[in-house]
TrEMBL record:
Catalyzes the synthesis of 5,6-dihydrouridine (D), a modified base found in the D-loop of most tRNAs, via the reduction of the C5-C6 double bond in target uridines. Pfam families: Dus. It catalyses: a 5,6-dihydrouridine in tRNA + NAD(+) = a uridine in tRNA + NADH + H(+); a 5,6-dihydrouridine in tRNA + NADP(+) = a uridine in tRNA + NADPH + H(+). Keywords: Flavoprotein, FMN, NADP, Oxidoreductase, RNA-binding, tRNA processing, tRNA-binding. PROSITE patterns: UPF0034 (PS01136). Its EC number is 1.3.1.-. It comes from Marinitoga aeolica. Its cofactor is FMN. Residues 8-287 form the DUS-like FMN-binding domain. This is tRNA-dihydrouridine synthase.
Length: 296
């Protein structure tokens, strides 16, 4: 079961093995895979299996998304030996996902969400948690918490925005005070955690049991240990991160994927703008080393 107070949130196209391992090394107490499609798993899609945790990973949740109860069960049974718990994605606001009835669309059909939780709980041997938003169009946080706990989920993580809000406005931390009153299972918070202190405040003052950090960890694995690296450590970490990705994906794909993380690592640096432009055109590890060496 998810253990710890501060962990890495699932992020599609980011939280791959290299990202997770780096965050873990810098203090993330638990991690999640990117969201993985239950339908793709059932169809034996190779890329989806590559997204599963590796053997050495501990305290890691496998996040699944889908809209069909039987598919969740089939996929859950297929993947349960790879991770420590299964997390149901009931929060993704992306059109492509919602259109199919998955992600945050499940918040429009709480009966179905309940059925998915129940079905998984009855079949897999590992804990099952859920990651939700406050609602689809409107905030129905209490109803969601009730559904989740009535169906015996092992924890719930709330990103305190509705689907309609996407990423606008502020994550409504005040709502954690209300929700923690009625929530009898571990309650996790997500949304706008940009420092170690934010995490601490949420746990100490808003009544949540743990937090997950997403955007605040991009290029900043130090958020998990409340440190700021000097420029040398920053450069070393970037290189290490890119190397780990190359081991997994090969040079071309790794460098392509690393580019957006480069933006995170260079936030606030003197010549970030110029070098971000340069990095857009690189396609080899050697090129990356050159750009990184120029960072000031
Ligand atoms: C690029 C990106 C990808 C994301 N992918 C997922 C995902 O696969 N599953 C999920 O539950 N949430 C996903 N999220 C939502 C985050 O886990 C988190 O709940 C949200 O970003 C708010 O937290 P933050 O303010 O710390 O970023 C994603 C967010 C971002 C920015």
């Amino acid at each position: 079961m998810l253990k710890g107070k501060i962990g890495l949130a699932p992020m599609a196209d980011y939280t791959d093995y290299a990202y997770r391992e780096l965050c873990r090394e810098y203090g993330a107490e638990f991690t999640f895979t990117e969201m993985i499609s239950v339908e793709a798993l059932i169809r034996d899609k190779k890329e989806s299996f590559q997204m599963l945790p590796k053997e050495n990973e501990k305290n890691i949740g496998i996040q699944l998304f889908g809209a069909n109860i039987e598919s969740f069960v089939k996929a859950g049974l297929m993947v349960q030996n790879y991770g420590d718990w299964i997390d149901i994605n009931a929060g993704c606001p992306v059109k492509k996902v919602v259109k199919k009835g998955a992600g945050s669309a499940l918040l429009k059909d709480l009966n179905k969400l309940g059925e998915i939780i129940k079905a998984l709980k009855n079949t897999v041997d590992i804990p099952v948690g859920v990651k939700v938003r406050l609602g689809f169009d409107e905030d129905i946080g209490e109803k969601i918490i009730n559904t989740v706990q009535e169906n015996n989920a092992d924890y719930v993580i709330v990103h305190a925005r509705t689907q309609k809000q996407l990423y606008s406005g502020q994550s409504n931390w005040e709502r954690f005070k209300d929700l923690s009153e009625i929530c009898n299972i571990p309650l996790g918070a997500s949304g706008d955690i940009y420092s170690y202190n934010d995490a601490k405040v949420l746990i100490e003052e808003y009544g949540v049991d743990f937090v997950v950090v997403a955007r605040g960890s991009i290029g900043n694995p130090w958020i998990f240990s409340n440190r700021k690296p000097d420029i040398e450590e920053l450069k070393e970490t970037m290189i290490k991160h890119a190397k780990m990705m190359i081991d997994d994906y090969g040079e071309e794909k790794a460098i392509r994927r690393f580019k957006k993380i480069f933006i995170g690592y260079t936030k606030g640096l003197k010549n970030a703008r110029e070098l971000r432009k340069k990095v857009a055109y690189i396609n080899s590890y050697g090129d990356l080393l050159n750009v990184v060496s120029e960072l000031k």
